[in-house]
Amino acid sequence: MSPVIRAAIFQTAWTGDKESMIQVHEQAVRDAAAQGAQVLCFQELFYGPYFCQVQDPEFYAYAEAVPDGPVVRRFQELAREHHIVLVLPMYEEEQPGVLYNTAAVIDADGSYLGKYRKTHIPQVKGFWEKFYFRPGNSGWPVFDTAVGRIGVYICYDRHFPEGWRALGLEGAQIVFNPSATSRGLSRYLWQLEQPAAAVANEYFVGAINRVGVEEYGDNDFYGTSYFVDPEGQFVGEVADDKAPELVVRDLDLAKLREVRDRWQFYRDRAPQAYEPLTRP
Questions:
Q1: pLDDT tens per residue, the chain (280 residues)?
Q2: Is 115 assigned a catalytic role?
Q3: Across 73-222, where does the E strand assignment appear?
Q4: Is 52 annotated in the active site?
């Protein structure tokens, strides 16, 4: 594996129907591969609207099996064809009535590597997620892919530092945070929390947010997706705050060792002192 990998994230607007939304993302895979990308992550709940702005059981129909549903199978073929690792943030139905906010990870040969289920589930105006999702029970998996060790943390998870650290302890080199986050609520945190997590845990972070206002509410999704390195520096420009954009960047994994040798945060941890963190 080369110490420099070409990674991509894709932000876009809701098209109005599931099939055209899937087609937009299929084209993003082709475009990313044409630019030499070796790994690509989509935004949260990528093939639908952010329906959590309302509480309506009709949207349960967006959920499907992972990995045995049609969307995962469709993108497994694309991953195999273009030899690209894919992170697919989806609505998962484990069984009727048991639903999760999930990301499936597909390796560059099209094989399914596993899933992460969103752990922290909000229930506030415009983000009624407890109506749709159970809290995740997958732990903090890190996936051995063709481009290195990849972790996933989903949207609201990013406000909780414990999972970021757990992913680092499991050996993550890149952590993707697919999101649907609104201009009026969290914009001031967007370029603060994730660079801080990259520094504290000494890995790369890819932060992905959708764009636009959708018909189910007034959340204004502000894009500005980006990659950040273990020194908290943006890798290239931050994406537009209104338009769809494919962000492709070269990530030098050699920087992980450089930064970890300098700071030694993992050596100097004091887990014996952290018992209060596990109290309810």
A1: 569 999 999 999 999 999 999 999 999 999 999 999 999 999 999 999 999 999 999 999 999 999 999 999 999 999 999 999 999 999 999 999 999 999 999 999 999 999 999 999 999 999 999 999 999 999 999 999 999 999 999 999 999 999 999 999 999 999 999 999 999 888 999 999 999 999 999 999 999 999 999 999 999 999 999 999 999 999 999 999 999 999 999 999 999 999 999 999 999 999 999 999 999 8
A2: no
A3: 85-95, 98-106, 112-117, 123-124, 127-128, 142-145, 148-152, 174-179, 204-209, 211-213, 220-222
A4: no
Q: Which of 126, 176, 129, 130 is CA-nearest to residue 149?
A: 176
Q: How, if at all, do strands 127-128 and 211-213 pair?
A: unpaired
Cα-flanking dihedrals φ and ψ of residue 250, to 5°? -90, 125
The alpha carbons of the chain give a radius of gyration, in whole angstroms, of 18
Is 255 marked active-site? no
pTM: 0.97
Is there a contact between 158 and 197 (Cβ–Cβ < 8 Å)? yes
Q: Give the DSSP letter of residue 64.
A: B
Give the count of alpha carbons within 13 A of 14, CB side only.
20
Residue type, 125: K
List 92, 115, 118, 255, catalytic entry: 118
- Residue type for position 108: A
Let me know how long the chain is.
280
Task: Kindly name the residue from 41, 93, 115, 155 that is annotated as catalytic.
Answer: 155
